[in-house]
Amino acid sequence: MVSRMPQLMEGKVALVLGVANRWSIAHAIAKAFIREGARVILTYQGDRQKNTVEELAAELKVHQVIPCDVTQDTQLDALASELKSQGAVLNAVVHSIAFANREDLSHPFVETSRAGFALAQDVSAYSLVAVARATTPLMAAPEQGGGSIMTLTYLGSTRVVENYNVMGVAKASLEASVRYLAADLGPSNIRVNAISAGAVKTTSARGIRDFSKMLEGGAKLAPLRRNTDPAEVADTAVFLASDLGRGVTGNIIYVDAGAQIMGFALTE
Q: 112: which of 49, 168, 189, 190 is 20 to 30 A away, CA to CA?
């Protein structure tokens, strides 16, 4: 008799925010969570995303799809109320949301507008705080394992990456928020971490000028001599959301083929 491999998230409920299309990292994470036995809930922002996310949800066989614009506190409250009315107990929340104006990515950082700076911070960093505040009351009790909140970041938070500009500053704010949230929520046995993924060919990444050169250069520089596979990021998310990651909080975990350890490349 062949024994079945245990599913790492069997019996767990996960809320995934930020699935925009099948190439997004959030989609890969949702797919991995379902593979590991989790019941997954997706959100979408506005009517423009509704059909796409619902189609993806049907393919993935997710449990539920709920509208939510993370920049609107009323919608976050409505999301929490909807889940509470259903008696949902969350074990994991994935925040995979970021945005900056295209012009603020293509122009020198010193030319960033006040409004553009505030927008990038609000959507890319503060939204994690707002999501945490809305969802932590729904998480399992400390003695029942608490919960795991995770977000996605990038190396541009700590190093200057050409054309990343205002998004790099927003990601730095996001990573600081991870540490402060981890300290606040730790007593409730809620862990907060970030995954720093290497350059991945997503739709949103195409908004960064010369992104193809980033991919090419990253593959040459990284110790593993390749770019990051979204499935690798998703498997790390499974670790953080499962009981295997129960002792990890306040951390930035790099899944980038080792790129973050490298300095200047020597060329002929």
A: 49
Please state, in angstroms and rounded to a whole number, the distance separating the CA atoms of residues 14 and 26. 12
> Strand pairing of 13-17 and 147-153?
unpaired
Task: Kindly give the pairing relationship between strand 13-17 and strand 190-197.
Answer: unpaired
Whole-prediction pTM: 0.92
Residue 164 is among the residues annotated as catalytic for this protein: yes
Q: CA 210 to CA 196: how far, in whole Å?
A: 20
Please report how many Cα atoms fall inside a 13 Å half-sphere around the Cα of residue 165, on the Cβ side: 23
Positions of the chain with pLDDT lower than 50, given as ranges: 1-2, 266, 268
CA distance 193 to 148: 8
Contact status, residue 102 vs residue 116, Cβ threshold 8 Å:
no
| CA-closest candidate to residue 16, choices 66, 51, 87 | 66
Q: 161-185 b/e with 16+ CB inside 10 Å = b?
A: bebbbbbbbbbebbbebbbebbeeb
Active-site residue flag, 126: no
Residue 268: predicted pLDDT: 42
Tell me if 112 sits within 8 A of 104, measured CB to CB.
Answer: yes
CA trace torsion 200, 203, 208, 213 (10° rounding) = 50
pLDDT, residue 47, reads: 87
Catalytic residue, chosen from 126, 164, 180, 254, is 164
What does the pLDDT read at residue 205? 52
Alpha helices in 61-164 (DSSP H): 73-85, 102-106, 114-121, 127-135
